[in-house]
Amino acid sequence: MHNFYNAVKSIYGPISHRITPLKTADGLKVLKDQNSILERWAEHFNTLLNQDSDADYTILNELPEFPPIDNLSQPPTFLEVLSAVRSLKCNKSPGSDNIPAELLKQGGYLCTRTLHHYITKAWADESIPQQWRDASIVTIYKNKGDRAICDNHRGISLLAVAGKVLAKVMLQRLINNITESMLPESQCGFRKNRSTVDMVFTTRQLQEKCREQHKDLFMAFVDLSKAFDTVQRDLLWEVLLRFGCPTKFVSILRQFHDGMTARVTIGGQQSSPFPVRTAVRQGCVLAPVLFNIFLICVTQLLHKEIQDNSGVTVVYRLDGNLFNIRTLQSTTKLHRVRILELQYADDCALVSHSPQGLQSVLDAAVRAYSRMGLTINTAKTVVICQWSANIPPAPPIFYAVDEKLSIVPSFKYLGSIISENNSIDNEIQNRIKQASAAFGRLRRRVFQNKNLHLNTKICVYQAVCITTLLYSCEAWVTYSRHIKSLEHFHICCLQRILGITWCDRVPHTEILRRTGCKSIEATITQHQLRWLGHVIRMSYNRLPRRVLYGQLQLGQRSAGGQKKRFKDQMKTRGAK
Fold first, then answer.
1. Tens digits of per-residue pLDDT, 53-101?
2. How far is CA 351 from the centre of its chain?
3. In terms of pTM, does the model score above 0.85?
4. From 65, 98, 350, 381, which residue has the greatest number of CB atoms within 10 Å?
């Protein structure tokens, strides 16, 4: 699979290694000289990764305290180190020691045993080599905004592979003992067997049920400014101690961060080293989990402060028939869940039935983030209003950090467009646009290449274009107009691959037969039925399952037929 995608990337064309000019910090001058650009990058990251803390440490008194988990402080076993070495990813850039992961993986028993000796010594001494701390920062463009502005790039730390082995051992211990038991169900980022589709599906289900039961829905999509880079480390260590991490375990975690220095690498040259006093290390396997643990505090504070009827309350029953809503009329077997937020890492959507309720949740979220030292970017935080009335009233005004928020008709949340009317029209057009761009980039080199076999072209088309076209289709409720648009794009692409036009009058069924492809409708049906089975098999506490099986606590359905729902679509497609 790795070789396949490497081949696709090479087909896209050579990667430009030209050094991008940068603007100065004040934006008045453009730097083109490599040394000046390198100094500007070093200045940017030195400022970003050494911000003064404005976190409120009294927040610790409001968090639950757990007894230390003793097995976290035990020295790493040989089996733990061996498992960590085997899980290292190949074909990754090495750190400053220039030791690739492949060397450790192919080094055999003696190499792993020697590495285990050094790791246990570092564990006993609570001191790790400086080379395991230091990072070489490379920049990656975020694909949005001006390339000449440093803030539109993400810094990734290249770290020593030997240090990654110890980090992986500690990561697995954190997952087994802390995160999976403490993370809220509203958080799906960086967690096993969870993806963006979980949160997109839950969001669309809330929209669908509010429309069905004639309840307003207000959603605020919160954007954090440099979330990973502004984590206050001292507060993070105290949070870990509070959640049951022994002092020794936290001390070794601190060793990866305290005294850390970094250099920026551009065009094969490195900047002068500078200290790094804040942030989790983007590029370290521990960073996502540490960030998730940090956000647990925000979620707990949010739910603790919101005691009124804000949010969206769903009643559900998991022991009944999914398609029989009469089971939800029981008064004794129903369970309730209140949803205030839907999170995927630092991407957060706040929900409520009323403008006052959403403003209350927003205010509580702003206070919680601020107390943890995180800042909401009000320029990128937006609100969507889904009204139950046919003629919506005047739009309400929402504030965050004393600034007015924009109200938009649609928003791209986790790569999927959420619209105020719960329609997927904009989403379908966006998917076609994205897939068309992917097809166009490969058209000349792959799809019109006479030296490639048809099966190869179809494999590339399905892996790149169809995957892009049908991203998050598991959550769609489609109508004939949507299927028609998607099928039209699909057939046009296959016609170009086969080298035929509409003038040849080849039926669509024949085009599908020649290429061995399914129709888009059949593919969507397959994806959705697989997803439905996945949701039904989820544990009872998972949000997608609760929302799918439930209904709003308040609100009434209209008499007679309802607008098409996800359940209706699944019932129809399952019967075919």
1. 789 999 999 999 999 999 999 999 999 999 999 999 988 888 888 889 9
2. 19
3. yes
4. 350
CA dihedral for 564, 567, 568, 574, sign (positive or negative): positive
What are the distances in angstroms from CA 65 to CA 69, 216, 243, 290, 391?
12, 38, 6, 17, 50
- The residue assigned the tokens 């839950």 is 202
> For 545-554, what is each residue's pLDDT tens digit?
999 999 999 8
Q: What is the DSSP string of 449-502?
A: -TTS-HHHHHHHIIIIIIHHHTTTGGG----HHHHHHHHHHHHHHHHHHHT--G
Helix axes 287-305, 233-242, angle to 10 degrees: 70
Q: Which residue, among 253, 111, 58, has the nearest Cα to 103 in the 3D structure?
A: 111
**Rounded-to-integer distance, Cα 271 and Cα 162, Å:** 24
Sign of CA dihedral 551, 556, 558, 560: positive
The CA distance from 87 to 89, in Å, is 6
Backbone conformation region of residue 549, classed left if phi is above 0, alpha if psi is from -120 to 50, else beta: alpha
Q: Which two tokens stand for residue 287?
A: 């960073």
Asked whether 381 and 333 are in contact (CB, 8 A), the reply is no
Contact in structure between 366 and 401 (CB atoms under 8 Å): yes
CA distances from 302 to 54, 221, 299, 374, 381 (A): 19, 16, 5, 14, 18
d(CA 514, CA 35): 56
Report the interhelical angle of 480-498 vs 508-515 (nearest 10°).
Answer: 60
> Of 359, 311, 304, 356, which is closest to residue 336 (Cα–Cα)?
311
Contact 558, 214 (CB under 8 A): yes
**Token pair belonging to 21:** 């000019």
Residues ≥6 apart with Cβ < 8 Å to 349: 199, 203, 219, 220, 221, 222, 341, 342, 343, 413
| Beta-sheet pairing, 217-222 with 347-352 | antiparallel
Q: Say what angle helices 161-174 and 78-86 make with each other, to 10 degrees.
A: 110
